[in-house]
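User: Show me sequence and structure for the first protein, then do the same for the second.

Assistant: Starting with the first protein.
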Amino acid sequence: MSSCVALITGAAQGVGEGVARRLSQDGVKKLALADLDDALLEETATSMRKAGAQVVTFAGDLSVVANCAKATEIAIKAFGQIDILANCAGSTARGGILDTSEKTFDHLFSVNVKAPFFMTQHVAREMMKRKSGVIVNIASMLAHGGPPFLLTYSTTKAAIVTMTKSSANTLKRDGIRVFVINLGWTVTPTEHRMQTKIHNYPEDWAEKVGQEQPFGRLLTPEDPAGLISFLCSNDASMMTGAIIDLEQFVIGTTDTNLGAVKN
């Protein structure tokens, strides 16, 4: 992937940053990073430049369609092409069927659906010129259905799954492969703030909760980053439209430990 150019949204921290660093580690040295947080984005970009990557940035709200065009244009102007688009930006605002306000609903759909939709639209147009490209969307295991307080969020992630399948079908004869990752519970700075500030978990919540998981820990940004690197590689060149559950529980089954008799 040494000649590839990647555009990554939500790249200032968390999953987006992890993806950017992993792709750079695996040979993608030309990266366009987009995020809403200008200062944090520049910190990440500076760090990656020091590590040998060529990095350009776009700071802005990608739920504004014009900004999707600007982010794409910056990448094209800097590097001449885009080979990889990783839509990692997202919001996890709380809201259920009985208490979600119109403002929260519009915010979640703007960030989690509208932004990746129009990023895909603008980047796909560029990829079609070269008959090549990979697009990876980040959804959630809650796309299968989630807790009441995350119903609106879950609905946005289900929409991304459908968008991915349809995009893959639309773009397959243009040589563009499209995937979606249903991400399990992942430790990120945003998730840490949510758990400690909203749910009043202690600072070491991730370690304690992780010990209760089947594989002994929660996911970290490095987990989806490694998977995305694989999907962008030649090893995955004959697949598209895949919905991948990156999770240690198996949807549709029952945990064998539930209801077990303890001696």
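Switching to the second protein now.
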Amino acid sequence: MIRLSLIKRLRREEKGATLVEFAIVAPVLILMIMGIFDMAHSQYTSALINGAMQKAGRDLTLESAGSNEQAIDTLVTNQIMNVAPASATITLDKLAHFDFSDIGEAEQIVEDDGNQICDPGETYIDSNGNGQ
């Protein structure tokens, strides 16, 4: 009998309802906010790195780029390290293409055996100057 009256009294009580509702909604809300911050940080990082790469690309097309190449590499590395973890390893690969249709194309190989694969000892035309 005492239990029944206690349950009836608790069912009518609404003082803690807001706290219970917030406890249900809060984890979802916090996860959504954290996800938004994570996406915003990813976008910021991507924009910063793309901007540094584009500036380096423009700077490397200048006539004086040969003597400033190390300084340009340092600027790009410093920009990336502003947003990358301290333990990150940064490797820069510079490629040159005559036009956009050359991107991703294999370089011309001088075939000895006709298998369309650049085997060790076969020569190729290194059109982009990357040594590969």
